[in-house]
Records
---
Amino acid sequence: MRTTHTFATTFSVLLTSAVLLGGCANNPPPVQQGYYANQSDAASYGTIDAIKVVNVSNSNSGAGAVAGGVVGALLGNQVGSGSGRTAATVAGAVGGAVVGNNIESQRKTQQRQQYQISVRMDNGDYRIINQDALDDLRVGHRVRLIDGRVYRY
């Protein structure tokens, strides 16, 4: 019976820590990826007005904090007994989450280049789409937007 209670306590501490620490991730605002309100807009036509290269930062997903918290809690659970073990489990989860988040932050601070394509739609709207590849797109080309990507028409 004690093994089940210890497992349940450990699991609940891990789950609580993961939920609480998942919100610690510092996520920048998302990059505008184009807009279409309904299915009729999913395949729209327009003309490219401008293309420029922009630097885009990768965002933290929070996975580093969660993984670090789980590993830290598992290691902390191996220390002591009773309430000391619970305290060590919580401390391990918090410490592991902080370390995991820092590792992920350092790894993901690299910027990458994308093409920001400004499209004047046939209905008069403007859309800005960021894509990794330009392919054969040039200013003045007629294009089709499908699922947030620009294709030559």
---
Amino acid sequence: MRILVTGATGNVGRLVVDHLLAAGTAETAGTIEVRALTTNPAKAALPDGVEVVQGYLGRTETMPAALDGVDRMYLAPLPGTAREVLALAGKAGVDRVVALSGGQGSWWYGVQEAVNESGIDATHLEPGEFMLNSTMWAEQIRTTGVVRDAYPGSANAPIDLDDIAAVAATVLLEDGHLGRSYELTGPETISRAEMVRCIGAALGREIPFEELTHEQAVELLTPSMGEYARWYVDGMAELAAHPQQPTATVRELTGRPATTFAAWAVQHAGEFR
């Protein structure tokens, strides 16, 4: 079985490669062949045992060679060319797609639409906010020791990227997941103020949370997020009124509990120090 991992040096794709390699070693006696799509194979530094091919979802002329002989594909979220890539995948004989996508109203809904229209059997992974997004506070913490943000009581169930990758590898390899959409979250609902406290505990010091107004937060985030800054802050306001509840999907599919934010903060403390 040959599996193509697109975006193989991205935040999630790189971890999907690792989980597939581990499964190939531990469970299937080498019957899994992992092909990794990357824009720069020389700098990718992917592990031994991976077939590295040059290409990019956004340059569809590179995709036929990457898809040749592929049975299954992990599809990274790039809505702009998803339909073209999936048409090429269908022609190449790909019979299963696991897509990192999102429901209606999300940034990645275009991927879900394209997959559903392609006719290829597929599974959708719909993650909530990434724990990694909390690194937006890293520069503030390093330089001022304080987090300035809005809605300290805004609460959701953020997820570790490695848990998303573990689920992706599982549904690529196992039967019984086609036609399904899985909402993926961390194991707990946690407020933004509690997240800052967890980061402080990982660093061994208290980090004050200085609350901003809605408009101040939009202004603060606009340089890095552009037009999505207001959408993001509006979402924080919604989660202050209606906190996201966690799902048990990661544990149910992988057999291991999802990572808590406190554990993630300890693992990533160096990014805030």
---
Amino acid sequence: MIDVKSVTIKDITAELHHVFNLFNEEFFDGKLPGPAITIQSNGHRRLAMGWCSTVPVWGTEDGSVQMYELNLSAEFLRLDFFEHMDTILHEMVHLFHKVTGVKDTSRDNAYHNKHFKNKVLELGFEYENNKPDPVHGWTYARLGKKAKEKIAGMPINQEIFAISRYGYEYFKAIEEGQKPAALSQVEPVLSEGGDRPAAAKARSMKWVCPSCGIAVRSYKANVNLKCMDCEELLEKQ
């Protein structure tokens, strides 16, 4: 057993780097470049459990070293151990596709397409429904039983994930002998590389097929449009 009072963010970050290296070897044949792993407040990404930057954003001043950012949201460190593993492996799939030149999201990086779906299924994720979410596509994959068993057998310190960002009001309520307000029960979003899609605006939006370039316009922010010639979902420009 670890002493919870001695756990630091540095300890958790170090363990996440260890997890990344284990997963890189086990699931990606060691092909992924080492990212800058961070633990930050999700801020305006209120329901995002984590993200991977779409381009390298960390590195040296002269650019000789460049790294992607892989982040776990501080507010969700309170969740179950396998939720952390689910999040980091989810974001590693995005990183894998970034470095191999595969586009696995569209619509401002909110919609997860079939490239994402096929890869996570290959790694042992499962879907409750064999139907994409109209806004986020195939993002709602969860680690399956066999994948969890494989991860449980890895030398990972599960107890290190003992602290989380709850906020001042939460701890103030505890100190005053009150019951803290319930933490959000809203299903978090596994988000990649950006905010959730903005609300629809009055102006029209252009949607383009990524293969043949055919374009159409709509006045709705979130629609499913498919090119019947290329069998591709049209992407918002």
